[in-house]
Amino acid sequence: MLSTLNFSGDQLWGSIPSSLSNLRRLTLLDLSSNNLTGQIPAALGNLSRLAFLYLPGNRLSGNIPWHLGRLRNMREMDLGSNILSGQIPSALANLTSLNSLVFSDNRLSGPIPEELGQVQTLQELVFEKNNLNGILPRSFGNLTELRYLTAYLNQLTGPVPVEFGMLSNLIGLDLSVNRLTGSVPSGVAGNLTSLTYFALWDNHITGSIPHEFGNLVNLEALLLSDNFIVGSVPPSIGNMSSLKQIAINNNSLSGELPPEFGNLENLEYLISYQNKLPGSIHQSFGKLKSMIEMRLFNNKFSGPLPPGLSNLTNLVAIQLADNQLTGHLPDLCHGKKLQVFRLFRNNFDGPVPKGLRDCSSLIYFGISKNQIEGDISEAFGVYPHLSDINLSSNRFKGRLSPNWGSCKNLTVITYGEQVNNSLNGSLPGSLGNLASLQRMLDLSMNSLSGPIPPELGKLEVLMFVNFSHNQFSGAIPVSIASMQSLTMFDVSYNFLEGSIPKGIRNASAEWFLHNKDLCGDLIGISPCNLPLADHRRKHQKIILSIGLPMFAAAISVVVACVIAFFICRKKVSQRTDDVNKRDVFSVWSFDGKMAFEDIINATDNFDEKHCIGEGSSGIVYKAELPDEQVVARRVALIRDVAQALTYLHHDVHPPIIHRDITSRNILLDAGYKGFVSDFGIARMLKPDSSNWSALAGTYGYIAPEANPGRIFYKCPNHHIPPNTCQHYYWEDGPDNYLDFLVRGGYVSPGLSSFDSAGVIASEETEVQVKKQSTVETVVYAEAMQKMNELIFLCRSILSALVVLIVVVVCVGFKK
């Protein structure tokens, strides 16, 4: 009869047939590592003699059938690495002969059955990588034969049961990556003397590290990282002579590491980063000759490193970054095994240890942001396995060695951010041989010069390039466009020129700013439609196009001055040529001297036969010039001026005060109509004011009352000389004038007497008339009085003056 059925790793597919239940004598069924799907048949519960059931490494789904609880002879059941869901059936507690129960890497949920604590034969319980929740069963303290309990990566809550301290045969306890709370029970820490592996990392454990751990002399791994543990590391840790690995990182530990650590001769991994550990690293650490990896970064360590660290010949990785360590770098590569050397962001100084030059085993080397100094071309050798090197922000100088091109495995080179570094010389083209260079090539903030090697175009997988803030010159190689993985190519702040190669993916103008003469099709970069030489000439043309017009303008001004000079010299001769064409009424061509000669000739040297009037202001002659122009025309000029001033004073709001009525400010049109012009010093009179306080005008024409400093709106009337008002009297003689006054109703024709005093008064003046006895004399005297009234209206309100003048003209005065 068939008792063993083993199809392990035979690439079976499909579901498990229920007909297997007919194999009544079957004791071992191994279907592991296949592609089986579907559910576990409940009929397997009929295999009463079955002792070993192995179904891991398939794609079985559904619930675990409770019927498996009938297999009372079952010793080992492994259902791991499937897609099983639902809860663990409590009926499995009936398997009283069970030694190993494995549910790892499924999708099981719900609590762990408390009933399993009754299976006292259990030696291995594995619940890792599921979705189990609830608390750890306290009944597990009864499983005195239990050797391995693993519940890693679930959602278990609550404290670690104190009852676990009774599991004296327990070798491995892994409760990591859950939500366990509380502190580590001292009984668990001190009574499990057989324990070799204790893991509670990534939980919510609080409290301090129990000193009872010092009793676990067989413990090889103590993993308490990623919790909320506080306090200091107990010195009793030094008693754990078998300890090979201690991980207490990512907690809130404080206090110095005890010197008793030096007793842990078998310690290989010391992981205590991301804490608050102060003080120095004790000299006793130099005795940890089994040490393989030391990770103490991001703490508060200070002082120099103990020289004894150079004795750690088995050291593969040392990471002491982000501390406050000082002194020289230790020579840690005597064992030729060092691969990781990361001491960045400290205060180390001095040169790079000579032993590191021959450390061919290096893979990661980072000492950025220290005060390391020396010639970079001499401090480093050839590292065939080097993948990542970061030397930024130190005090290196010198040139990059072409030997870097021999580091075939380099993926990252960072010499950038060289605040104090001064790398100079050209960039070796051998860097183009670094076919594995993938992540970064950063040489920014240095003094590198020369052209960018075209060999860099062979780095097709390189993603980030930063050459900014250097002195690179020449053109950007066209081969850069062949770097298909390039996501940044920063060459700003250099002396590059020429066109930016087309085809650089996701290129940004910021990558190329502040260079000598780069051009391209990017927005923010000058276009380069012409070759470089023509591009330069284009800039020269722009300069010339601005400079030449300015020069031409200056020359034009000089030429204009010269022409003006010659025009002035020829002005006299031009006047002689234009004598027959001149217009005495033209402002531009008027020559007073020659016009006077013409007037003398036209009046026969002012002969009386040309006289048409005589008054206090002089004699008026009428003459006809050679061009048939008549110049003796006072006509209605006074009326026009008076009307203009009346408009300015009474019809404009606010009123306008001209303040400079002179003959040169009165223009005549072709019909000899007068127009007031030149309002250069005119002012608007405020509505609530009748005077102005500023004195302005032409001397000889300013009103007398302006002397005290107050300017009245009547002042411009003064510019109409009173004697011009007499024109209406003298133009046609007194007879015509008297006739006008009588006909106009201004003088009474029956005036029969006249005061012998002969004094006729007005508001501001007196006119004395000689005694005469005739009626003509009396009428004449009355006419003089009216004439004076007309004259003084010139100093009064212009609106009244205009009315009188218009009436005079309209009635029949001769123009």
TrEMBL record:
InterPro entries named among the record's database cross-references: Kinase-like_dom_sf, Leu-rich_rpt, Leu-rich_rpt_typical-subtyp, LRR_dom_sf, LRR_R13L4/SHOC2-like, Plant_RL_S/T_kinase, Prot_kinase_dom, Tyr_kinase_AS
Annotated localization: Membrane
EC number: 2.7.11.1
An example Gene Ontology molecular-function term: ATP binding
Catalysed reactions, semicolon-separated: L-threonyl-[protein] + ATP = O-phospho-L-threonyl-[protein] + ADP + H(+); L-seryl-[protein] + ATP = O-phospho-L-seryl-[protein] + ADP + H(+)
Annotated Gene Ontology cellular component terms: plasma membrane
Transmembrane segments: 542-567, 790-814
Keywords associated with the record: ATP-binding, Glycoprotein, Kinase, Leucine-rich repeat, Membrane, Nucleotide-binding, Receptor, Repeat, Serine/threonine-protein kinase, Signal, Transferase, Transmembrane, Transmembrane helix
EC main group: transferase
Domain Protein kinase: 540-815
Membrane topology (UniProt): Single-pass membrane protein
GO biological process, one term: hormone-mediated signaling pathway
Cited PANTHER family: LEUCINE RICH REPEAT FAMILY PROTEIN, EXPRESSED, PROTEIN KINASE DOMAIN-CONTAINING PROTEIN
Record-given protein name: non-specific serine/threonine protein kinase
Organism: Triticum aestivum
